[in-house]
Amino acid sequence: MAALPPAPARHRVVITGAGLITSMGNGWGENVDGFREGRLAFREVTLFETAGQRVHRAGEVALPERLPATRLGRRRAARVDRATALVIHAAAEAAAQAGWDRLDLSAEEIPVVLGTSAGAMALGEAYYEQAVATPERHTGQVRRIEHYQIQTQALLAAESIGVAGPVTVITNACASGANAIGHAFEQIRSGRAARAFCGGYDALCRLVFAGFDSLQALSTGLPRPFDAHRDGLAIGEGAGVFLLESLEAAQERGAAILGEVTGYGAATDLHHLTQPHPQGDAALLSMTRACAMAGVGPGEIDYLNSHGTGTPLNDVAEAQAIRRWCEAAGEDPARLCVSSTKASIGHLLGGAGAVEAVICLMALRGGWLPPTTTVREMDPAVCFDLVRTPRDKDVRTVLTNSFGFGGANATLIMRRWPA
Amino acid sequence: MTPRLAITGWGAVSPAGWGAEALVSAVRAGQPLPAEEMVRAPGAPTPLVRRVPKPAAPHSFSRDPRMRRTSPIATFAVASALEALGPERVAGIKDGTLRVGVIFSVFNGCVNFSRRFFSEVLADPRTASPLIFPETVFNAPASHLSSVLGSREVNYTLVGDSAQFLASLHTGADWLLAGGLDGVLVVTSEEIDWMSAEACALTDRLLVVSEGAAAVYLEPVETGGVTLAALPAPVRFTPRLPRAAAAAKLRSLLPAVPGAVLCDGLAGAAKSDRIESAAWADFTGPRFSARAILGEGLAAGAGWQCVLAAALVASGAAPAAVVSALGGNEHATGCVLGADAPAADDVAACERAAREGFALLDAAEALDRD
Fold first, then answer.
1. Chain B nearest-CA residue for A162
2. Which residues of B touch A267 (CB under 8 A)?
3. pTM
4. For A211-228, what is each residue's pLDDT tens digit?
5. What is the secondary structure of A386-416 as a DSSP string?
């Protein structure tokens, strides 16, 4: 039997809460200020040893010593690792913005959908080092085992804002955060849930930092997405969270609506484990699918937040995909405004898609475009209007791309909600 | 004819061997497979483990460029997936006539390569292998699988506790009911490494850690296959609904079917089994405990249970099978396979599904869309 016919969209899906923490700052305000100017937020890595590596800088978050007020007990809160702390900070901001912090949500099955690539890998590293150095000493190991598990981080984050529904953790490498928002969006759109807590996060850790360095994928200077002489990405860390609701559920409780998610597309790039198809085939497919769901074409996208890592292969493949996507719709790509915010905070891996979605929401609400300020000479593949300096613009519809190791490609489309 | 969701293919790799048949035979024989003690260093935990035997012959996919450097977790996953799909479906995926989504479920993941790579980083980051690092990423096995199949459709890697496989099956059913996919391949795979084996031993010394994979192919059908009769949403553990209460709630959500066999998640380790044993203490029908025979396969364990259940129903050994999986720290999951799905006008069943799960209700709604 063939596939079932496409299910109709039963609900519009709106954003009622958003939160983020990045190396640019903790929360909406500090990040708006930084991204609007295209400020750079990199510093020497302090969390682990980088001696012997080519690169020593990253988008390291100045993590507050204390968690925000949460619904976790004091004992559980005290055991939270860095990765979980990042997502709890973002979740607390989103919950306060949505007014969820004043609701008793425990009786409602609100899905929790989070994306991450490495989770609490730093705990796995500590477990390994102790197990090798002192095999007979097991102190602290059971706690590391428990908190290393990715579902533990999601459970703690959900409990921190009192959300009790089923947990789904997507680990699709650097597309994880976008996949998580897209999956939550589909849950509400189809009528399976009225609300969802979703987003993505990743914390810096030595294994992943050294891994990208071993691939020579890290820039030895600054990440320069779409620059002709780009030499790699910078690793960052952080978290981005959305609280999504069906339009009816949001209106019923009188919630302030920040924006609307209208499209989600995903596709798998089969070219190589770590390299995109040179013509961006899967990127084209995920953008096309997201647009079909949202009912828009390239000509209606006012801003495209690119995956734009600053690696030689990614940027040219994404540029090709954007060109093909525009040309297939009969649109001139030169009219499309594009930038990469990874130039400012680095690549947040599993958190990237979610944080960049929040940045897009900021642009929608603020009427500005976040510039990529590190570009000196544009790559010849750039066929679009690469935003390199701060710019105000009436932004109604945005598209954000996230592509990951393993060929995981995801695209989200969001629309401004009328004031 | 009411469209329904059914499992129409399954495959497995386990300490019993390569293939679902070896798994089913071993579990039905009822004797735990031999285990060996893993000794790494003086003073370190010494877990008992059951490994997957070497294959009798090289796999057909071993020459695929993607599979040259993979660790066992990817090999197990691909082998079980190809068995579940069969050559005709694989050909359909490759030629683009069959649109198949992939969901890869994992608890532990590729710890083997992560440990090796991190040890190289600690020794000297300048010589850490760039060939190993990409294989440490959670979704590497899923990526290899899509590549071997030639599928550009959506592919998720979902991480959770040892009950995750059935939660992933729930997501797969969601995808099918949303339309646009001909089928969904739900796969799980785990491999033994001293880090994870010792970690299991630290939490329960009696657990026998094992490895392997399981895969089921889920699709909407009019006839044939093993009906996915009930698939409640995963029951998450919360401070208000702790593990024991979640296990009991899951039990209450799974409809009782006369003559059904229970494929439970008991591992043969009293401490780990206590709560699930209590939840099903009054079950009087026949039951099989795949993990007790094959070992604690982590995420693969619930996959083995599901494969066993499908095989038992398909062979006529039971009219229906109930699968129960109680994870360690996240959720209780389960399903009923084989009982006939209710007719679209079975109001009581639809109301129940609306409250507790979705499979039955949405099958009816899918019919309406036709």
1. B238
2. 152-154
3. 0.95
4. 999 999 999 999 999 999
5. E--S-EE----EEEEEEE-GGGEEEEEEEEE
